[in-house]
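[Meeting: bench + compute handoff]

Bench side (C.D.) handed over the final construct sequence. Compute side (W.E.) agreed to return the predicted structure before the next meeting so the bench team could plan truncations. Sequence as handed over:
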Amino acid sequence: MCDAGQKRSGLDLFKYIWTEWISAFVILVLLVLTLIIGTGEMIHGQLLRMGESLYGDPAKGMQYSFLRAEPSKPDCNRHPNVDALVQAQMKTNAADEFADIFGTASESDVRASILAAQNLCEEKYQFYDKAMQHMQAHPTLRTYRTVETTFFGGVKFGSENRAILLVLMVVFAAISATLKTHHIGLRSPTTKIDFRVYSLFMLVANGFLVASSLSQYHSVQNSGVPMTGEMFSIYWMWIILFGLLTLISLFQVIKQPQATQEGGRLGMAFLSVPLYAYMAVITGIAFTFFMDYPMGQGIYLGQLVEFSSIFLNLALFIWAGMLLKQTRIVDLFLNILRPWNLAPETLTWLILIAAALPTAYTGASGIFVIAAGAIIYKEVWNAGGRRQFALAATAMSGSLGVVLRPCLLIVVVASLNKEVTTDWLYQYGSYTFLLTSTLFLVVSLFLAEQKFRIAPLHLAAPKSVRAIAPVLPYILIFVLIWLFYKYALSTDLNEFTAPVMMPIILLVMVLFDKLRHEPAPIQAVGHWDETLDLNYASSVQPAMAGADLSNAVEYREGIYTAQVADELVVNHAVQHSEKLDPMRQVGFWKSLHISTSETVGHIGALVILMALSVSVGGFLERIEVMSMFPTDIANIYLVISMIVVLMIVVGMIMDPFGAVILISATVAPVAYQYGIHPVHFWMITLIGFELGYVTPPVALNHLLARQSIGDAEVAEADAEVRHASFYYRYERWILPLLVLFPAMLIIAYVPYLFKLFGWYH
């Protein structure tokens, strides 16, 4: 690293130090703090339960919660002179100028009131005496209480400042993403004209954002509303962030990054502009010049702060996804499937089913695509799948699990809509997953060149069974940590605790990998055809030089004709795995650094995109776009059709988290008024999002798959089918649509037609 750093100079050296070390260290600290806060809340709950168990006494009516603060001695008179007090009160009542109007209490009433106060005072003294006696009987109580309340103070301080943690995290991550040109766009800038258009749009976009943040700050200052310290800090962090991004963009306009390709076209250059920059320019122009609402973007950034816990959870899920990338879990699981030599379509279907669970447990679809997309792509391709088919499978690997527990998106839906619960949505989401995964198998087999292929049972089964053993330690780690949380902290793994538990589980798995010094995952770089592809053999040369591979393995009609070559190739691949994937041979701390550095870029790109999606949603809400939706349609099927079209359009152009906020405020109430059951409506919405993830013009999952696989591989896949038929040229786009669009229609209409699941009464 030092050598690499010494070759850098000036801005490049600063960029390297900032992105790879400063921001990575700060984000790591903030992520760990977020984990400590989340786990701390669980620990504190357990401390309260332990305190109750140790120091509570149900028989005496004494609870630990009564003793968390030192009991204060009552200041009332325990033994008053009742007669004297009655006479004094009677004289006071008689002198009251309003006595003639309201009447005077009788002596018996006054005496009863004083006796009631005496009884209350006596109860206070009895409780005080009992509490002091109880504390004397338990001399360690004060020490335990000090530890528990001090711990609670720290957790409470962190919980109350989650918004500041989030914005601080976004500040460092967004600056790094901008310096590394890591923001999400339809394509990466490569030519001079690409970078020129990219830099100009970024300059204008960030200029609008800093102006809006300043306008909002001055608006709050002039409103007379008192500004808390937290609000003051957050406003200035937004101003500093977008001010720095504007300066960086200005510098990039003057001194453009080095182009990697010559030429370039203006039309293609506009595709290189980050999506958030387009959103910022559009909403900035609309709010500033057409609505006279210059603080609009800044105000809608407040939505990010309002849901700070959810977006911090998203950051933890991103980190978990990057930690997953540093383990061998995905590759070891695929080792179980490899010996069966399944047809690409069948293999891909199994991979998609298996990928649904980590997709749900990493909170949002894109994170799993980034973490495991490259491995999935290579596996499908090496099994004989077309490159375009492998790209489609990679993009879809992060879509189908969005409706399963404990996906964060459904938690956001339930938090914004009291009409539904997470349990309902997860229950019917499992039906949606079953439908979409089955449709994928049907469609892909229908289009397959070879419908079915499987290795002989006696050859494949022993190897597959042996491949299960390396996976068992990871399952054991998962189970042990889950049991620790369940019984030591009385916390189960669910949609609310998964963001805290998953990074810890993945950290232990990474440590386990590194302590065992496991070889790198076997990622074949060739493509199996009728005979062993020499591209794969060449990857383990010169060790296999001279080896007789002519009769090693044949895949004619998917049947093994010999048994030895797959073992030969795999064994040599293991021996030379460091040559195949040297970056996976680093230690634990380097892996932690790599995963955190990748997390920084993705947090900066994804969270800023989500923030501007909320701004777009706010713009659409302010122009009252839903007022154009008819309110007197008698045909419910027409209403559902309009909602389907709207969901597809929103899913195509907006980030799902921003879209949920928009739809919850605008579309959902209208749908409910038409009698569409809330669960049915959100199933339509979620499948619409899945469809939107893989549908142009944005197709977020395709963009993230490209980031994982690499622009060069995608370009090679496109070049490979340049002269093929229309379907094969665009298979990576068309195949997901052939699966998810029919699923959308079935989910939208069939439940209403047949009153499925009891949604309609």
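W.E. noted at the follow-up: Confidence is low (pLDDT under 50) at residues 1-6, 519-583. C.D. will use this when planning the next construct.
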